[in-house]
Amino acid sequence: MQKILSGNEVKSLDQQYVAGEGICSYQLMERAARVFCAWFVQEVPMEKSVSIYCGTGNNGGDGLAIARMLDGKGYSVHVGLIGDPDSGSPDFRQNLQVLPERVSLDSWEKCPSGQVIVDAVFGVGINRPLGGDYQSLVQELNARAALKISVDMPSGLPSDGPAEGDVFRADYTVSFQFPKLSLLAPEHAVFTGKLVVKSIGIDRRYFESFDSRRFFYSGEALETLHKTFPNSSHKGDFGRIILAGGSYGKMGSIGLSTRAALRTGSGLVFCKVPACGVDILQTSIPEAMVLPPGGETEVGGSLETEGIDAVGMGPGLGKGKGAVELVHELLRRYSGPTVLDADAINILGDHPEWLSFLHAKVVLTPHLKEFERLTGIEGKNHFHRMDLARDFVVKYGCVLVLKGAYTLISFPDGQQVFNNSGSVHMATGGSGDVLTGILTSFLGQGYSMKNAVLCGVFHHGHAGELAGSQFGRGTLASDILEKIPESFRHFGIV
Predict the structure, then answer these.
(1) Which of 33, 171, 273, 400 sits between 20 and 30 A of 100, alpha carbons compared?
(2) Which CATH entry fits the domain spanning 222-490: 3.40.50.300, 3.40.190.10, 3.40.1190.20, 3.30.530.20?
(3) Binding residue per annotation — 161?
(4) Strand pairing report for 77-81 and 104-107
(5) Sorting pLDDT into bands at 50, 70 and 90, what band is 294?
(6) Residue 154: is its pLDDT beyond 90?
(7) Right CATH number for 2-212 from 3.40.50.10260, 3.40.50.1100, 3.30.365.10, 3.40.50.300?
(8) In which order are the strands placed within the sheet that holds 240-244?
(9) What are the tens digits of pLDDT across the range 111-148?
(10) What is the largest CA-CA distance in the chain?
């Protein structure tokens, strides 16, 4: 996993790295520019004209190096400068000196508008809203029709806090080595566009001296997080789990969870559903077993958990009396691995006195509104929600998966992990139910809490990517679960 540093720590990281490797900051800037250009030539046709807008700091130095390299690759490049170049950073001035004469260089007001706009005005250092010419430039660029790309950070966006004032609106942001925290906030997606993270070769050991507890996970060494099973394994070795949920008109939810658990590899899946859903489950998912129902249209009755390896509860559950009693019983009596989703979380939010029943083997999987109901606090922004999530799990000793773009996983030791898999096409009803099945399955198979959640969330997102690449906006939650085996194969999981 890649540690995420604050904007103030980036300069210190760069200094430690260049000193440790015996190189200069200009060489590191050259490396960043080459990485950017390698990505750029894969995305932008040669016939597109390119306008690069550069400030006079190191982000502007990146922009000048990119202009030189793209010119060398045959692109038509224009550079627009903003600020006093004589007072620019040393690396900016050095890159200005080696900019080829054939590259058009003007003030930002005179720079011709290209079909592609590259924003290299401000990087991680900005800590106040834009004003003056900088604000005017961003406003003008935002109004233009062009493909827009930011280098490391969209200009005007702080690294570690909410946006204030005008911010460049990129279609792509190419961030170096790790994503800055602000790029992961859902409310900043309108500025970030599609986030691309490219390594510039800074070894992980240079991050060790920084105390950040936040990480970015892109599936590195994913296979090492998975359990392996010998050839002599039988279905009991792959876990006996219960999935509880469903109500009249909402049997599809628990059906998706059940199919997802089976596709993830569970050996035996038992379903606790109302009487109205028994025939539906038995007919549509013959591999599942249905427990005796305790209610006609909503789940009710008791839950026998002897010999059960994990329980998932909530999809389509409803909030009737029987459902409330079932959640209460599970929290009071079952100490094994537990996943609470959807209405189980809403019921818990209605009964905050039950929060004391949470323990180290409980995973909560709320979306943003469910999280607000759970905590009773409306998050001011994503930075506030990150702190709320961390404080919640530290207080109650559980794991919390805050679903959304770059799903945030919070562990009770205070570590938080942003997941880098998924697709906008996963924003469809039932996607969260699939995740509940995946997580419960891994827990039932005997994965540790941390490995189960990291594997579950990542594979859920990756399966969503695979489904989205095939079906686009027509992606269904059932398409996602059917791609789980393909996701396993992609990462060599057998």
Answers:
(1) 171
(2) 3.40.1190.20
(3) no
(4) parallel
(5) confident
(6) yes
(7) 3.40.50.10260
(8) 2-3, 214-217, 416-419, 408-410, 399-402, 362-364, 338-340, 310-313, 240-244, 268-272, 289-290
(9) 999 999 999 999 998 889 999 999 999 999 999 999 99
(10) 80
* pLDDT above 90: residue 379: no
- The pTM score is 0.95
239 labeled binding residue: no
**Residue 60 annotated as binding site:** yes
- Residue 58 counted as an annotated binding residue: yes
472 in a known ligand binding site: no
Find out whether 119 is annotated in a ligand binding site: yes
Q: How many angstroms from the chain centroid is the CA of residue 163?
A: 19
Q: What is the mean pLDDT of the chain?
A: 96
pLDDT value at position 73? 97
- The pLDDT of residue 47 is 97
| 127 marked as binding residue | yes
Q: Which two tokens stand for residue 274?
A: 């109302």
Burial of 160 (0-12, 13-18, 19+ CB in 10 A): middle
Residue 444 annotated as lining a ligand binding site: no
What's the CA dihedral at 132, 133, 137, 143 to 10 degrees? 50
On whether 152 is known to bind a ligand per the annotation, the reply is yes
Contact between 292 and 303 (Cβ < 8 Å): no
pLDDT(444) > 90: yes
Nearest Cα neighbor of 113 from 79, 84, 85, 82 is 79
Q: Binding site annotation covers 128?
A: yes
456, pLDDT greater than 90: yes
Q: Does the annotation list 405 as a binding residue?
A: yes
Indicate the domain borders of the chain. 2-212, 222-490
